[in-house]
């Protein structure tokens, strides 16, 4: 009888630990997606305010049709901020990390306005279509990354190479804008959507695994902010590439 009682107690404790882990994981994921979609909302508001206030005119050089120095400062400033925030993610308090995510979202909203303004002039409905497609793709890939038992870590190096390639192409297009016209531009958009869709699944699996390894609550909150930043970048990048793809003409 004593052995049965011990076995029953052990099973009960195991179920209790599993229940606490599941509850903790659920809260952790809710925090990540709340921060991520909150950042998306901030980006939308920042973009709307920039357009509504007419401030986007300071980002465009009307004489050359290119961008002003302010645009490049905001663009590269945002890129530097995102890299710095990722490197220092576990040095900040979670609140500070969330504020940096908000600041980055504002910068992204402002930087996106020239594209949004151009699309509004020719095909406004494509903004909604691009957002819906990006949201569906994001949800599917995030669910796949969370549920799959296949190890996706092998994709890391290839995805990083793909992202670096996309950044280099983007930088080159500032010097030679015509290079993103025609078929090459369409291929770049398709690759961009694919890379960041796969990044979504890759990051979700890593965030799930990291939760099981990190025991400290503060670090879990810091990881939630870092995960929200990664997923936010993937979602916004997919949206921009899809929007460009829908307006290739």
SSE topology string: HHHHHHHH
- Show unreliable segments: 1-20
Distance between the termini: 78 Å
Give the % helix.
over 70%
What shape does the CA trace take?
Answer: globular
Q: What class do helices, strands and sheet pairing give?
A: mainly alpha
Largest sheet: none
Compute the number of strand runs: 0
Rounded to the nearest angstrom, the radius of gyration is: 21 Å
**Tally of structural domains:** 1
How would you portray this structure in words?
- By secondary structure, the protein is mainly α.
- It has one domain.
- The chain is 82% helix and 0% strand.
- Helix 1 packs parallel to helix 3, helix 1 crosses helix 8 and helix 3 packs parallel to helix 8.
- The radius of gyration is 21 Å and the shape is globular.
- The N and C termini lie far apart (78 Å).
- 29% of the residues are buried.
- The N terminus is likely disordered.
Sum this structure up briefly:
Helices cover 82% and strands 0% of the residues. It is an all-alpha fold.
What are the salient characteristics of this protein?
249 residues, mainly alpha, 82% helix, 8 helices, disordered N terminus
Question: What's the topology here?
Answer:
Blueprint: H1 2-52, H2 69-87, H3 94-111, H4 113-122, H5 125-147, H6 155-175, H7 182-213, H8 217-246
Helix pairs in contact: 1-3, 1-8, 2-3, 3-8, 5-7, 5-8, 6-7, 7-8
């Amino acid at each position: 009888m004593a052995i049965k009682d011990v076995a029953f107690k052990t099973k009960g404790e195991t179920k209790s630990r599993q229940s606490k882990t599941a509850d903790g994981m659920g809260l952790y994921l809710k925090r990540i997606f709340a921060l991520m979609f909150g950042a998306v909302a901030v980006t939308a508001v920042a973009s709307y305010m920039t357009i509504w206030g007419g401030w986007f005119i300071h980002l465009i050089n009307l004489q050359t049709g290119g961008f002003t120095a302010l645009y490049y400062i905001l663009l590269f400033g945002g890129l530097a901020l995102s890299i710095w925030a990722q490197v220092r993610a576990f040095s900040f308090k979670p609140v500070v990390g969330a504020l940096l995510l908000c600041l980055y979202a504002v910068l992204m909203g402002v930087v996106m306005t020239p594209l949004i303004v151009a699309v509004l002039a020719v095909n406004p409905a494509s903004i909604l279509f691009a957002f819906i497609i990006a949201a569906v793709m994001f949800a599917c890939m995030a669910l796949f990354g969370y549920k799959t038992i296949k190890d996706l870590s092998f994709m890391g190096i290839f995805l990083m190479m793909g992202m670096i390639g996309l950044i280099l192409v983007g930088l080159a297009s500032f010097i030679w804008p015509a290079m993103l016209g025609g078929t090459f531009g369409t291929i770049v958009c398709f690759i961009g959507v694919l890379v960041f869709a796969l990044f979504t699944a890759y990051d979700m699996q890593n965030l799930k695994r990291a939760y099981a390894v990190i025991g400290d609550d503060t670090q879990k909150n810091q990881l939630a902010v870092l995960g929200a930043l990664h997923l936010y970048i993937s979602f916004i990048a997919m949206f921009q590439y899809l929007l460009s793809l829908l307006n290739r003409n």
